[in-house]
Amino acid sequence: MGIAHIEVDSLRDFIRWMPLKDSIEINLENAASVAINFHKRDIDSVITTPLSGDDYTFLGSLLQSAGIRYKAIALNPGIPELKKNRGARKLTEWEFNRIDELAVEGSVNPCFGEIVNNSELSVDATAQMVLQLAGLNKTL
To answer: Would you call 138 helix, strand, or coil by DSSP?
Structure first.
């Protein structure tokens, strides 16, 4: 069976009108609810979003209360690499500034979970490493 990818920013699209800081808890609750729904059907999930320490604790408590094993894995290729445009997609000014905010908040290099420098890895190699570190032992 496959793995569900829960992109928290996609869930945020439902309430994009709400200021980001006000929406984070709702977005994390929604991500946990989706993961719980998949878990009931024996589908593993990977939730992707930057997390502060408080957000990690909050999301973890929601998942743990549903009996879901979880692990934090932070991808950190370094700030210069994060600020590079990739392919045809150009970073917006808001995204560029958000990277700095996340760095200051500690989300780029958190004090929890495993940190992976993926600056030299392809997208597929990064995904495979995340699955391995998460103990999902599945291939893409």
So the answer is: coil
Token pair in block for residue 98: 């958000």
Confidence of residue 138 (pLDDT cuts 50, 70, 90): low
Give the per-residue pLDDT at 109: 84
Report CA torsion sign: 69, 50, 59, 37.
negative
What is the pTM for the complete model shown? Answer: 0.85
Quote the CA–CA distance of 39 and 27 in Å, as a whole number. 18
As a whole number of angstroms, the distance between CA 3 and CA 6 comes to 10
| Torsion angle (degrees, nearest 10) of CA 58, 19, 109, 139 | 70
Q: Which residues fall within 8 angstroms of residue 26, CB to CB, at 6 or more apart?
A: 15, 18
- For 67, the token pair is 């009996």
For 103-137, write each residue's pLDDT tens digit: 888 888 888 999 999 999 998 999 999 999 998 87
Cα separations in angstroms, 45 against 49, 84, 104, 112, 119: 13, 28, 28, 19, 24
Q: 32-35 contacts: CB < 8 A, separation 24 or more?
A: 32/59, 32/62, 32/63, 32/66, 34/4, 34/6, 35/4, 35/6, 35/63, 35/66, 35/68
